[in-house]
Amino acid sequence: MAKLFKYIGFLLLLIIIAVVGVFVTAIEPIPLVVTSSGEQVSQAESVKKLMQQLRDSVKNRTNKQNIYISQDQLNSLVGFAQRAHGKINAQVHISPNSTNILASYQLPKNPIGQYLNIDILLLPGSGIRIHHVKFGSVNVPGNLALGTLVYLANWYTNSDIASQFVQQVESVSMSERQMQLSVLPLDQFLRELNDVKQGVGGSSDEEMRLRTAYYLKQLSLLGVGKRSTSQSLAMYIGPVFTWAKNRSSYETAPKENEAAIMALAIYAGHHRFANLVGDVQPKRGKAALPNAKPMLKSRVDLNQHFIFSAAIKILSEQGLSIAIGEFKELMDRSADGSGYSFVDLAADFAGVQFAVAATNPSNARSVQNILAGNTDERLFFPNIKGLPEGLSKNEFNRRFTQVDSPEYLKMVRSINQRIAELPIHQIH
Known about the structure:
The relative contact order is 0.09. The chain has two domains: about 25-195, no CATH class; about 205-425, no CATH class. Mean pLDDT is about 85; it is low at about 195-205. The chain has 16 helices and ten strands. The chain has helices spanning about 1-25, 35-40, 45-60, 70-85, 140-155, 160-170, 185-195, 205-220, 235-245, 255-270, 300-315, 320-330, 340-360, 365-370, 395-400, 405-420, and strands at about 25-30, 65-70, 90-95, 100-105, 115-125, 125, 130-135, 140, 170-175, 180-185. Strand 4 (about 100-105) and strand 5 form a beta hairpin.
């Protein structure tokens, strides 16, 4: 038996050495691709057509469908990813014979190398055909790469959902700067997807669910939610942070505030946020929500921007929350959109910083003290006077050229300064 364990240990050591060796070989001193996210997201409005196709595909889930994806749409999404996580650079090239995805990820400083470069080549044909995936100088055959990815995704979700996803794609065709996916009926796949647990469960997730369920139930009993006219979100924030304060110690305050914000997002934002937390609704099969949607600065849309961004911050990285808000505004510059709004962007940024302050262990109790029982928006939402909105793409380009131009960054600094001056961010 001892000899068997010795052989197993030796085999594991060899595997570890091999994996480390491949990783070290894949790291390179210079990036494979360098892009400007500001230029890439300049075509963000084109993504609205893709999103509409995806919505239509869900509606027509019992039929086979063709989904068209352009090079501009993919590169806009890549630019969004870079703005969410600045260490990523990527670019997509679509031709009639192949689609090439090039990406570079900047690693922390180390003596081996600075970048992990990835080169993926997709081919047209039946199903999903990957010719190769290169990690630096390491070339992995496409079938092996796809099979490994599918296996890991199935393992992570404890399902076969990734296998089903691959099987949904009947064929892929390509033309100049566009690809077409022929997709089998999605009905069964979407049913299976709905049953897949999000993330990895654990005791901390259960604690979050129970806390959120408590605050959501309290919100559902709140008298202000029974009114027939829209009320300020502050009318809900004051009570919910009173409950959080009463339930908190210094150590638990960040977690209580986190759950309070998620309950607000479910109740005052959209009930589907509950899907990301678990079974939290007070009444099974019925979503708790106010009779009239809450407002900020007398606008329902600003409440949604604010509370959605706060919830996304709780569920993800801060950079992602900001990038989502910015990308949504860029999409709205299209002819059928509402136009680019720095007011909406201010609400997005304010929501993110609200969540940051409320869940910071050093500030959580102080935020509770400021907000508990208080119904003044000026404690957590900035002045929006003078911020441009409703800008078409032409007007946006005339005034700001593109994202990250000096004029654009000046406006962003003005928004951030207004947020920094709010009472909940003046805690020292």
